[in-house]
Fold each of these.
Amino acid sequence: MAHFVALLRGEPDPDLDALEYLYFSDGGTARVGLWGYWDIWAKRACTVKVVSGPGSAKPSNTYGSAVLAFDLKGLTERSVIQAFSGDSPFSGKLECKRGGAGNLAAENKRRLDSGDPKEVYPGAKLVPLKAGFGNYMHSPNMVGVNGLAVHITAGPGKADGFTGNFHTRKVSTHFVIDREGMTAQYVAASLQSQAQGPGNPNFLSVEMVGSQDLKKIQYTEAMTTKQLDALTKLWAWVFITFPAPQWQLAGIYTGHKRNKQGLGMGHGLDSLYPDIGADFASRYPCAGAQSSINSCINTVGLSCHWWLDTALKSCPGVPMFTQLPQVLGFSEYKLASLSKYQLV
């Protein structure tokens, strides 16, 4: 039997991306994947129909070998979809729910205002986002919390001052820690942030305020002592609050990323990140060196943007990257070439 999945990654995972509900936009449109769409016995592709309420579905492109995408329109909260092989049901039924930004913004604020210790980090200043989070076209909720992913803002600012930036760019994070160690929370812990692509459903995210030379992307700031202390406390809360994380580095991506033209980032980063990662795997408790991003997503522990997203971005930068073991309580990682990458 087939089942419906969210289209969050290049090739959806049948378990990680399985949907509980299909969330549609304010205009009644949605896009969904059908995992196992090919009926091997009848030798034909399945179709998706709206079996209750208004709406229609049209097949689109495939994702990998097992998933066929469908575009839907005219949906309401009375709509229910199901896959068929010919006239025979080939999946369970999936209810549709409105997932527009307005409704989700109110839900985010409600969860943050609740004071629920599994939603809100104690001591954080609450700055509820109204947009740029939650993946409205699919399930907005976290699939689970495997750990915490570290990012860099690539620009200055106060922890509670990034709302406009997030809304404009349609991106987000759960937490921001500024250079003075102040922590702000923008998204409730049970909702996805739009921070690390395919890693969004499984890892909470934190942006560490730090600058980056936009012309020479290899130059970034390290965390301040106050930031490192605040991040260690936030990581301890994640470790204690959620059952899955282990006190370790999550899966360490040691592969190489390339764009469509086959190019990497340059500046020595394409080999440096895998080399440091391999060294981490030999020195510190971790979920092992991994050759794929999906493998990293399936692990638990303290992670970072580079290990969870297929995008060709240098985040969190070499200086912060090398500070990750310190969050676990280890001494400073010595990198002989660090001065070549540190923005001072």
Note: The mean pLDDT is 91.
Amino acid sequence: MTAVEALDGLTLAVIALDQQLRVDRMNSAAEVLFGVSAGYACGESLHTALPLLAPIVGRVAQALTDGEGFTERELRLRGPGGRTITLDVSATPVRSGVDRALLLELMPRDRQLRISRDNSLWKQQQISREMIRGLAHEIKNPLGGLRGAAQLLARQVNDPSLTEFTDVIINEADRLQALVDRLLGPNRPPKKRQINIHEVVEHVCKLVCAQASAQVVVERDYDPSLPELLADPEQMIQALLNIGVNALEAVGDEGRIRFRTRSQRQFTIGGTRHRFVLRVDVTDDGPGIPPAMLEQIFYPMVTTRPEGSGLGLAIAQNLVHTHGGLIECDSRPGATTFSIYLPVECSDVT
């Protein structure tokens, strides 16, 4: 294993700065943390390449000049667009030949909180799903008997005014059966094969565009370097479409929806750290989701709309779970983002 491979295997973000405070190297964790590639950042000044760190550039420069490092805990930094992260930062002066250099180590405190929150959410959803499965099966059994009895009764009744009532019983039993089936999710295991995630995203984009009004703008922002994914394309389309339709309903007759794909390294899902995951973001500029509902939106029958069924996101989360993935949501007025994380087999990553 080379030094570069070892650095890329760390969950700690590491940035090497030269004597002029230009970025010399950065590992994969730093790329994920700041949302920029090493190819873009290397050679650029620290405040240009990583504007989120602008508030500590002066202190970093002083550490380089004095040859004395520093450590700061729970440093809150606010970047463009109101993005705020909390970091533990350590700066260590080093020698690079005859020149001075500086090593920055950054550990996002938010990441630890996210992992803890996601683990809790993962367990809660598994428990909730088992409860729903048990309840759904208890409902399905008497529904079948109720429908069968209504059919037998309809054959014995010759009065059309009475068969109207048996038809109501049969239709409502069918409606409840369909609802229970939707609660249970797909009734078959995923048929996985190697797919290009952009084919899935583009298919969903076209479906959303077909339903959108002329004043709704649908944007694409794809990372063409992403590897293929072992997944069921139909289930992936259904999961992403449910989220896309949610975004469309959020913006109404006028607004903006963006589909974005990226990769992330060293990402933890359900207590398991994955070396490489694909990320699909769906962002809309609608009114946002009330903070009190953010922790509940993936539960069945929970919806912010009076006419909503509350099943779309629950089904999407379940479909993504069957692929070992996770859906997260970040929302504020004017910017709601649903992010789908899907682990990629190590052999698929170059």
Note: The chain has three domains: 3-109, 113-184, 193-348.
